[in-house]
Amino acid sequence: MVDLMATDIGDDDPSVAIGSSGDGISGDFFSVIEIEVGSRCNRRCPYCPVSLFPYPPVAKFMPQEVYSAVLAELQKLSFGGRVSYHFYNEPLIRKDLHILVEKMRTSAPQALQVVYTNGDYLTDARYHQLRKAGVDYFIVTLHKSRPYPSRPFQTVKQVEDLVLSNRGGTLVHLPAPTEMDSRTPCYAPRDLCVVTVNGDVVLCCEDYKREEVYGNVLETSLWEIWHSERLVEVRRRLESGQRAGATSICGRCSNIAHAQPGISTVVEPFGRVVDLPSLKRESEAARLLPEGQDLSIDARLPD
């Protein structure tokens, strides 16, 4: 996790950036959806619960009916926020990821598709395949001391750059939240929707053990889940800094990176506030170029 509290993002307010992004859903709906298309990872990083616990008793890959249900919901909502394909998994383990990306691009063409990956399987061939399919940006967390290819629409982060949280109290070897942490507002469950491999909507990205489940996309619409009385009350308490009173996970959590609305959408992937529509336009324009030619363009993040 990037230390957003220490990152200079100028005078921009991420909530304003969201509000002006034209997604049509800000404030009363999530602006990010993270879809666990698989439940496995090829690494065992010490800052991740995967290194300590067995895989959850769920499918290795998201069933087609679950993914189709998510697509149908996003299409119905004309979703225009950020879409990613991870929870505690490595998305590129799925050899058909490009097909899922293509389907997302058809169902939610305005969405910004951002792939988080450890980079182990991101060859030049897969990079071009996924870019052509509809991926707009890659966030690579590099775990090896080795050169990594420089590509447009890609940010490479070193492990040393990460600021760690205790993952909702799961990583007991990391510091527990301070008293100030426990009173810090959290907007993660306001901005971010996490759909697990079996279709459950869980609290947020810190809920590794899937303790807080608010509904399943095969049974209930995302709109109904998002506006359920229980989840609305959790968000209300978190936004007022009442972490311990929200959920047991929140009371144990040391993550204070989402203390402002909009952080998850326009800051967290990139380290600073980014104009998502501008990034989307640049990505789409570059996608029209012949394969390989886009490697010569200047793909800096737009202000």
Structure explained in plain terms:
The chain is of the alpha/beta class and 303 residues long. It has a single domain, classed as Aldolase class I (TIM Barrel). The protein is 30% helix and 12% strand. The protein is built from 12 helices and 8 strands. The protein has an 8-stranded mixed sheet with strand order 5-4-3-2-1-6-7-8. The N terminus is likely disordered.
Relevant terms:
303 residues; alpha/beta; TIM Barrel; globular; disordered N terminus
Shape-level CATH architecture: Alpha-Beta Barrel
Mean pLDDT: 84
Terminal Cα span: 22 Å
What global shape is seen?
A: globular
Strands in their spatial order, largest beta sheet: 5-4-3-2-1-6-7-8
How many domains, as an integer?
A: 1
Helix-strand sequence: HEHEHEHEEHHEEEHHHHHH
- Which percent band covers the strand fraction? 5-15%
Q: How would you classify the helix and strand content by structural class? A: alpha/beta
CATH superfamily: Aldolase class I
Largest sheet: 8 strands, mixed
CATH class: Alpha Beta
Radius of gyration: 18 Å
Low-confidence stretches: 1-26, 296-300
CATH topology description:
TIM Barrel
As a percent range, the share of helical residues equals 25-40%
The helix count comes to 12
User: What is the strand tally?
Assistant: 8
